[in-house]
Amino acid sequence: MLIDAGKLEFLFRMEQDKINRIVLLVLDSVGIGELPDARDYHDEGSNTLSHVIKAVSGLDLPNLEALGIGLIEGVEGLKKIRRPKGSFGRMLEASKGKDTETGHWEMAGLILEKPLPTYPHGFPKEIMESFKKETGLDYLGNKAASGTEIIKELGEEHIKTGKPIVYTSADSVFQIAAHEEIIPIERLYEICRIARKIVDPYHIGRVIARPFIGASGSFKRTERRKDFSLSPTDETVLDRLKSKGQPVVGIGKIGDIFGHRGLTEEIHTKDNMDGVDKTIDALKRSEQGLIFTNLVDFDMLYGHRNDARGYAEALSEVDRRIPEIVELFNDSDMFIITADHGCDPTTPSTDHSREYVPLLVYGNKLKSGIDLGTRKSFADIGQTIAEIFNVGKMPNGKSFLNSIL
């Protein structure tokens, strides 16, 4: 049987253009402007990236600009490169909420119809009674608070009594702070695992261990924070990739966010630069599959603390490292840069903000300069990944693969 010459050429080109490896880099909280429903979340006027740039009277991000970030609708204060090396767009969050899990799960193809619950007035009595019974410990706090402020407020009493500090925020989190000399780190993690089981029926997004050190008046949180997340409520593209034998490497808090599901390797990090280092190491070790990295410092160290200057410096640091990642790419690689929500350090709020997120896509053999527009869901990333690795169509999202091949 003869095959049409045109079809042969098409099949040959498809094989030549095949993508074998994807680096998905999440700049945690780098939002680019309020979503249409931001008012419902009290986030009117938020624009994390543009406001940070304005707050420091301009910012030089040449490598992100070269990929096209300045061309994205809603981004102000960055150069609009006429011929960018990448393609660009922005994404709207279809899920309800603005949590870390919500954003990451949606990237992986899972849309939440109901937001994860929050507790602005503290956790209900039945949760805290179970906490006391199951851990054998009384507690301090049980209110919404800034992590650094509640340690200042209750740290000394915690040292005197040995009671862990329980608090929450505007996000779906059950946070437990303890001095490392009072409650050793492994014991704190054990307490968090117990709390995770207690709050599972309530679908609280994360239990977070928040260890700190130092003396009263100079307490300092350590890098040994650990997240214990609710498992995704349905199948994600990570699950599908793993089941098909593809390497799925989670770097940073990705393993925690996905309840340690759908990953073939988990690599924890100390900070943004360590996250970039670990991403580079993973690129050197494997030539296929997904490398999924979260750089959390933007959110944890600067967004939540309303530190616009620190946020700007962190953006510059990551921008300087992008060439180190790109120079390791071969012709079958794709680079996706995005975010999971906003956390505008220039607004009175210290919490996440409901914002669009950037979408930058680059590859040696991919089209450049394509305006991918406003995507209706973060799940477009998951659908694109599913199409690339031929793991079946996801229930949510629209692939942008045909636009850039």
What does the model show?
By secondary structure, the protein is α/β, with parallel strands linked by helices. The protein has two domains: 20-114 and 232-404, Alkaline Phosphatase, subunit A (3-Layer(aba) Sandwich); 125-229, Phosphopentomutase (Alpha-Beta Plaits), CATH 3.30.70. The protein has helices at residues 5-16, 48-55, 62-67, 100-107, 125-135, 147-161, 185-199, 237-243, 254-257, 272-285, 297-303, 308-326, 379-389, 401-404, and strands spanning 21-27, 87-91, 140-144, 165-168, 173-179, 206-213, 220-221, 226-229, 248-251, 265-267, 289-295, 333-338, 357-362, 371-375. Strands 10-9-11-1-12-13-2-14 form an eight-stranded mixed beta sheet, with helices on both faces. Strands 3, 4, 5, 6, 7 and 8 form a six-stranded mixed beta sheet that branches. Strand 4 and strand 5 form a beta hairpin. Helix 10 runs parallel beside helix 12. The mean pLDDT is 94.
